[in-house]
Amino acid sequence: MTPMANIIKRNSSYFIMVSGGYDINGKQIRHTTTFKPEQNMTEKQKQKALDKFVYEFEEKVKYKQKADSNITFEAFTKQFMENYANTQLAPTTIQRYKSLFKRINIAIGHIKLEKLQVGHLADLYSQLGESVNLQGVSFVATNDFLEYLKNNYTRVALAEKTGLGINTVYGLYKQKPIRKECCDKIVKALKVSFKKSFINSRVESYLSNKTIKHHYASISAVLNKA
Description:
This protein is of the alpha+beta class. The chain has three domains: 5-69; 73-134 and 205-223; 139-200, 434 Repressor (Amino-terminal Domain) (Orthogonal Bundle), CATH 1.10.260. It is built from eleven helices and five strands; from the N terminus they run βββαααααβαααααβα. A three-stranded antiparallel sheet has the order 1-2-3, covered by helices on one side. The longest helix is centred in the N-terminal third of the chain and has 27 residues, at 43-69.
């Protein structure tokens, strides 16, 4: 659907707002700009220039929506850190975000922004609040299994055989934590033992309500920039 602009005249300029839909929290996403025509223009010229400006702004918003919809939450958090956090926030806040995103991205980092639903966040918050879930939230390959993979499969070949994304496979080969669903796909495709192939990643300590709220605030901060 093409975004429709709301135009308000303010003295000699025009305030333009285009809706970008709603974020995961139900808050409307608004893109705004201002257009000020040249003083020597006739009314007809001003209207023509305004129409052209509005059309180009709507197309810009539409292109941004299309581009953003194809990006995963983890990739967008990296953009958020590079383009906003690292230049606008205090060093202590930046470090806290990095720590929070590391845990958050294990759970929802693979999901595209357009596919991210309230249910995904509800599941994440539930996991954060239950220590039993935190202990097995992700897994890493055992040394023996990793050696087996490197001797028998290229990263591309393993991605094709298991149906996993290439970034997930690269993470696997670097012994980075991956989700249990990804481990299950590998075990099924290669017909290997889960217990002999994977071990729990670093056990997380129990999270307080305050810390869980920090996770919620960091996710909201990212989505507000989407």
